[in-house]
Amino acid sequence: MLGRNRKASRERDVRAVWAVCSALLDYPTPELLAGLDDLERLVPGNSDLAALAAHLRAHPLRAVQEEYVATFDHTRKCALYLTYFAYGDTRRRGAALVRFKETYRAGGVEWDEATGELPDHLCAVLQFGATVDTALAAGLLAEHRAGVEMLRLALAGWRNDDGSTGSPWSGALVALCDTLPDLHGDEADAVRRLVEQGPPAEEVGLAGYGADPALTGTGGTAAGPPTGPALIAPATIPVRS
After folding, report:
1. 3-state SS record for the chain
2. How far apart are the C-alpha atoms of 188 and 138, rounded to whole Å?
3. CA pair distance 148, 145, nearest whole angstrom
4. Residue 97 and residue 147: Cα distance in Å, rounded?
């Protein structure tokens, strides 16, 4: 019984960290800033996440929005899309994206195409794990662990305009990686290769992604539309511990 209680407590702690990371890694909005106190209450004592929350509080919204875009939207090494690190913008990436949609469906939710986001967005994966199915989300993170570590290293080495090193968002990746198993063997080698080589060069883009029937619409069949809640991306699922 004690072992089961500890396991359940550990899972609650992981879900809380993932939920807060999902929210803090999303594009900053007035709603996010207004909810920072609630987010911090989910992860009391987590200094890495508290530092990011403090940074967001200390600067005007427009300034942190511009900083976010410069970090995540303008640099390949800081992409929030997990399959990008393994496949780049190549046709092979389409099959990997199908895997994310299938995993969400296995958890009883459907990817909402109306968001315009790809299903491998890190915020969406963490939301799924925090609010729907922790084990399935952990499987996706394990499959793309090298990409997660590459993002952590890129944010840790980020050079700020004032000459300092370390993106404010690096704390979220540190907190996330602290919930994941240690890297060993082939996983560590994959991280080293990514650091040395970067994501694969662009080939033909994601044309194959849109053509795949599994990635069009919302997954309904002739019997009718899918049932169950929609998975909205990136961070619009209500955060709960």
Report:
1. CHHHHHHHHHHHHHHHHHHHHHHHCCCCCHHHHHCHHHHHHHCCCCHHHHHHHHHHHHCCHHHHHHHHHHHHHCCHHHCCEHHHHHHCCCCHHHHHHHHHHHHHHHCCCEECHHHCCCCCEHHHHHHHHHHCCHHHHHHHHHHCHHHHHHHHHHHHCCECCCCCECCCCHHHHHHHHHCCCCCCHHHHHHHHHHHHHCCCCCCCCCHHHHHCHHHCCCCCECCECCCCCEECCCCCCCCCC
2. 18
3. 5
4. 14
Averaged in consecutive runs of 10 residues, what is the pLDDT profile of the chain (241 residues)? 67 94 94 94 96 97 95 86 83 87 92 85 94 95 90 92 92 96 67 60 48 34 36 42 34
Contact between 170 and 178 (Cβ < 8 Å): no
Rounded CA-CA distance 47/70 in Å is 24
For residue 36, give the nearest of 233, 231, 172, 230 by alpha carbon.
172
pTM for this model (two decimals): 0.79
Measure the CA–CA gap between 142 and 184, rounded to whole angstroms.
12
